[in-house]
């Protein structure tokens, strides 16, 4: 087995990258045609969204997908969206080897996010990665290392900590942050994330328990689609728009929405540089291949802060955020007297770097980057580990491993299928 | 032959059936919740204690082609986790041995893979050699999974991952890491001089924490000699993050740089050095602030506590540029600084309409009795664009005024102005509400001047409280023109949709009004509202 396959392929095409300056440095800053450039890796549903296909601040020059039909669709869509003829292929390594690509948008299923981010960082690309950041905690750790070692800019495709209405909360996160960091609610805090507070855990993202093998469609390079995931016979439900339902590729509704919901909560609770020390769970036993659902997951931090994921919508009277001195419900309602007035007098929280183009040009860490993104993705992955174990466990947020729990560590750190080693 | 063809056709048909007809794992679990609830620690301990024959019976439920019983494989997976957690060393070894044996005996690759996967979660280093034999298999997926499983049972996570030759960025990072902290400066300076911003950016990351005051001086001096805009911005970011206040002297002038991005970076850097330091700098900034920097500067000032900004904004206001004034007004308004009402008044004399608007908005939050006369006058003198702001400010101040000064000022104006000027005052009265104003507006609704009367009925329809309802009922039926009648009905309809609308109370009033001769259609409409 050629375990160095990915490296050699890359080196053959891209050795020159190591010694010459990146193309955008040589280009004049002033000519409009000399915008920073990007490539889309994966051309499924999310790649066609405003933040990827539609993002006009950089110029789309390439795309790839292991499905030849999607490659064709991508070429057509690129032209429709005013990018002209773009380079298109099936294997992302060809994209990484191109010196005319400054940034890659990773729009694949999560099982690819880790290794693609690492390879992209090593290839000298800046990265805009879909959420969840990685399928396992171990991969996330490796991404942080690679991004840091190679001086790259990395951002995740979720944004609720710095803009937009926060789902059913009917407010942006900013005023809540003001209240929290000025200790209007006291400390520690408990957050409840479930339908009563405006969040759905999307248990429709569940796999099928019996998948009779089907012939692989000719247009799909299934082996490349699988990549680092263990081989399992092809069934259409494993791929494209339903992959979320399988442990090998994602983590169901928790994997899909977890980072959207929990990253802002992590930001609010001032936990961007740490993780919970205890994870508790109530869920049915899980099928070994298909993701099911959970009833409740509770994360507890060392300082007593908690996050509760209400899967079965039983916490009907719960506020979104609760501390010893007060509570906040959706709509920014609070039981603190004069809450609105108190908020109006408070300064804004520290500014966040929210312009990705500016981040790339001036090497400023993006608001949601590989460091804090790793931590919020770890929240998601800790929940997934608990589901697969069928029980809670303790976690060391410094050593990034379970506490005296080798069974949990086996889920936290997982090997990939060769040659896609991380 | 015919039988085979029929079976093939059925099989093809079944394959083509939409997969959504199947239940998902979550749906299945819901349906079989009782069975799953029986998969408890106690029941798993029992199965574990029963030994190999019980395990093999469970393993027999794993079938090829995706037809395994979901409950059985779920139970099996739970047993694997149970063994890891609760099983003795001997039980774990025996269980893993049995999984290995099942993998060996399986004749189908997907079944072999199933058992190898379970071994991945519970096998021990002792199983490593046996697992490695599967790495020679040609069956689909087996060899690769065996490699994964071998590493898992040995606790190896990154084995076999080939290292990549470092690119120049990684090399710079490792070269800097290898140097003692006080020896890094030459390489940092060299890297910063590189035209590639990514390369220079790595130097800036390290420079944040490298050295002391002399290094700060060296970097600050570079602000004067660095021509590249991206490099200058990165340098400003770094100096701010260093937190060494001695850089302030070189940074401050750059807040006035002709390049917006550099000016923004300079502001950010000073804020990072200290909020008090930025508070000292910003009044000078607001003197010449251009419109293009209004939003950026306001956003930065919002980071400062009210105690740091209120007095400098008020004291320096008259010297600020118009954009600077707008920044001051907006922030004082947001912070509801009551003592800033005088600033709001000052702003009303500006030639810049946007500044005037901000002035009214500040007064909306801060105006008190002393401003009543001025705001009344402004209701009448403002142009069409500004007037709504004046009305909002007046109404807000009136609503919080406990001395009735605003109400009296408005009443006085209503009695003195011409008919042409009355509508705007009536409209304003509606936003305040209350019995005192209501009486005057009701009177105006009976005016011989059609425009005044119409404006008054409109005001009753928009009245801030439900005190206008009796009058509206009357106008809906008896007003001399259709327009006023319609305005009244619409007003009643809107009020009836409010949560605090007391049907019982108003039914009694309506019973009397209803007897008056007038618009029968409207009577029926009001009957329906009060049902």
Indicate how many domains the architecture of chain A comprises: 2
Tertiary shape of chain B: flat
CATH superfamily of the largest domain in chain A: Dihydrodipicolinate Reductase, domain 2
Report the radius of gyration of chain A as a whole number of Å.
22 Å
Helix percent of chain A reads 25-40%
Number of helices of chain A: 13
In the predicted model, the low-confidence regions of chain A spanning at least 5 consecutive residues are: 1-20, 26-32
CATH domain class of the largest domain in chain A: Alpha Beta
What oligomeric state best describes the polypeptide chains here? Answer: heterodimer
Structure in words:
The complex is a heterodimer of chains A (422) and B (531). By secondary structure, chain A is of the alpha/beta class. Chain A is built from 13 helices and 15 strands. Chain A has helices spanning 5-14, 23-26, 68-80, 92-96, 113-122, 137-149, 173-181, 222-226, 252-268, 339-345, 356-362, 370-389, 406-412, and strands at residues 37-41, 59-64, 87-89, 103-106, 126-129, 154-156, 190-194, 278-282, 296-300, 306-310, 321-323, 326-329, 333-334, 393-396, 401-402. In chain A, α5 (113-122) packs parallel to α6 (137-149) and α12 (370-389) packs across α13 (406-412). Chain A is globular and about 60 Å long. Chain B has a domain at 39-153. Chain B has helices spanning 2-16, 25-31, 33-37, 41-50, 52-59, 70-86, 89-105, 109-122, 128-133, 142-153, 168-178, 185-192, 197-207, 213-225, 229-242, 248-251, 260-273, 275-287, 294-301, 306-316, 322-334, 341-347, 353-366, 372-381, 387-400, 405-416, 422-432, 435-444, 450-461, 469-478, 482-496, 503-513, 520-529. In chain B, α13 (197-207) packs parallel to α15, α15 (229-242) runs parallel beside α17 (260-273) and α30 packs parallel to α32 (503-513). In chain B, 43% of the residues are buried. At the A-B interface, α1, α6, α10 and α13 of A face α2, α3, α6, α8 and α10 of B.
């Amino acid at each position: 087995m050629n375990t160095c396959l990915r490296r050699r392929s890359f080196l053959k095409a891209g050795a020159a990258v190591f010694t010459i300056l990146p193309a955008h440095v040589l280009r004049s800053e002033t000519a409009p045609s000399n915008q920073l450039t990007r490539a889309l890796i994966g051309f499924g549903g999310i790649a066609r969204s405003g933040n990827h296909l539609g993002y006009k601040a950089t110029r789309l020059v390439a795309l790839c997908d292991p499905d030849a039909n999607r490659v064709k669709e991508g070429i057509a869509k690129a032209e429709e969206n005013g990018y002209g003829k773009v380079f298109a292929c099936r294997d992302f390594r060809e994209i990484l080897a191109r010196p005319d690509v400054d940034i890659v948008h990773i729009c694949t299923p999560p099982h690819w996010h880790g290794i693609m981010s690492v390879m992209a960082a090593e290839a000298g690309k800046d990265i805009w990665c879909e959420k969840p950041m990685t399928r396992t905690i171990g991969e996330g750790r490796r991404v942080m290392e690679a991004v840091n070692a190679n001086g790259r800019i990395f951002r995740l495709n979720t944004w609720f900590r710095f803009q937009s209405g926060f789902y059913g909360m009917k407010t942006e996160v900013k005023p809540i942050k003001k209240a929290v960091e000025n200790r209007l609610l006291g400390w520690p805090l408990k957050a409840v994330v479930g339908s009563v507070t405006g969040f759905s855990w999307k248990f429709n993202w569940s796999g099928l328990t019996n998948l009779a093998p089907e012939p692989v469609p000719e247009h799909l390079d299934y082996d490349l689609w699988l990549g680092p995931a263990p081989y399992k016979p092809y069934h259409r439900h494993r791929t494209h728009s339903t992959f979320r339902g399988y442990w090998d590729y994602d983590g169901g509704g928790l994997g899909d929405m977890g980072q959207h919901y929990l990253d802002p909560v992590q930001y609010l609770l001032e936990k961007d540089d740490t993780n919970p020390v205890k994870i508790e769970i109530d869920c049915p036993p899980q099928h070994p291949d298909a993701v099911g659902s959970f009833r409740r997951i509770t994360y507890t931090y060392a300082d007593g802060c908690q996050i509760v994921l209400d899967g079965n919508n039983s916490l009907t009277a719960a506020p979104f955020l609760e501390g010893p001195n007060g509570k906040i419900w959706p709509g920014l309602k609070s039981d603190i007297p004069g809450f609105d007035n108190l908020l109006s007098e408070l300064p804004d929280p520290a500014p966040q770097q929210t312009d990705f183009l500016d981040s790339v040009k001036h090497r400023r860490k993006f608001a949601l980057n590989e460091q804090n993104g790793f931590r919020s993705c770890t929240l998601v992955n800790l929940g997934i580990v608990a589901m697969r174990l069928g029980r809670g466990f303790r976690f060391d947020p410094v050593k990034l491993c379970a506490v005296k729990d080798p069974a949990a560590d086996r889920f936290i750190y997982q090997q990939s299928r060769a040659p896609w080693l991380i | 032959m015919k039988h085979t063809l029929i079976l093939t056709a059925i099989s093809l048909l079944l394959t083509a059936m939409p997969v959504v007809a199947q239940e998902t794992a979550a749906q299945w679990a819901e349906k079989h919740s009782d069975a799953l609830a029986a998969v408890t620690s106690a029941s798993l301990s029992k199965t574990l204690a029963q030994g190999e024959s019980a395990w093999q019976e469970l393993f027999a439920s794993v079938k090829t082609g995706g037809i395994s019983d979901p409950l059985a494989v779920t139970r099996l997976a739970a047993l694997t986790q149970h063994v890891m957690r609760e099983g003795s060393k001997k039980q774990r070894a025996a269980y893993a041995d049995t999984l290995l044996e099942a993998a060996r005996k399986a004749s189908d690759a997907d079944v072999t893979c199933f058992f190898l996967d379970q071994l991945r979660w519970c096998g021990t280093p002792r199983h490593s050699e046996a697992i490695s034999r599967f790495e020679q298999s040609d069956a689909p997926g087996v060899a690769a999974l065996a490699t994964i499983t071998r590493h898992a049972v040995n606790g190896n996570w990154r084995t076999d991952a080939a290292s990549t030759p470092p690119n120049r960025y990684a090399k710079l990072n490792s070269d800097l890491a290898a140097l003692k902290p006080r020896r890094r400066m030459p390489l940092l300076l060299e890297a910063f001089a590189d035209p590639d911003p990514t390369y220079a950016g790595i130097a800036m990351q390290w420079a944040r924490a490298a050295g002391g005051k002399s290094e700060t001086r060296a970097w600050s001096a570079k602000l004067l000699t660095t021509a590249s805009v991206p490099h200058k911005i990165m340098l400003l970011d770094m100096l701010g993050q260093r937190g060494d206040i001695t850089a302030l002297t070189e940074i401050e002038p750059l807040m006035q740089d002709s390049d917006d991005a550099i000016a923004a970076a300079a502001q950010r850097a000073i804020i990072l050095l200290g909020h008090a330091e930025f508070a000292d700098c910003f009044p000078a900034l607001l003197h010449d602030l251009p419109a293009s920097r209004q939003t950026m500067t306001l956003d930065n000032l919002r980071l400062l506590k009210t105690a740091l900004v209120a007095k400098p904004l008020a004291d320096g206001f008259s010297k600020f540029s118009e954009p600077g004034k707008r920044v001051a007004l907006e922030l004082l308004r947001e912070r509801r600084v009551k003592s800033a009402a005088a600033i709001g008044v000052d702003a009303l004399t500006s030639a810049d309409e946007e500044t005037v608007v901000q002035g009214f908005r500040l007064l909306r939050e801060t105006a008190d009795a002393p401003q009543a006369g001025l705001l009344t006058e402004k209701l009448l003198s403002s142009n069409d664009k500004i007037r709504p702001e004046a009305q909002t400010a007046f109404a807000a101040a009136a609503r919080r005024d406990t001395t009735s000064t605003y109400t009296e000022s408005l009443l006085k104006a209503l009695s003195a102005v011409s008919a042409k000027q009355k509508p705007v005052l009536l409209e304003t009265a509606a936003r305040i509400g209350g019995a005192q104003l209501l009486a005057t507006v009701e009177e105006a609704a009976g005016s011989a001047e059609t425009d005044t009367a119409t404006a008054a009925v409109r005001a009753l329809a928009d009245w801030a409280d439900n005190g206008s309802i009796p009058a509206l009922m009357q106008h809906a039926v008896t007003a001399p023109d259709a327009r006023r009648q319609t305005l009244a009905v619409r007003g009643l309809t809107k009020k009836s949709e409010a949560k605090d609308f007391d049907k019982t109370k108003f039914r009694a009033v309506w019973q009397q009004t209803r007897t008056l001769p007038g618009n029968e259609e409207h009577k029926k409409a009001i009957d329906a509202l009060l049902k």
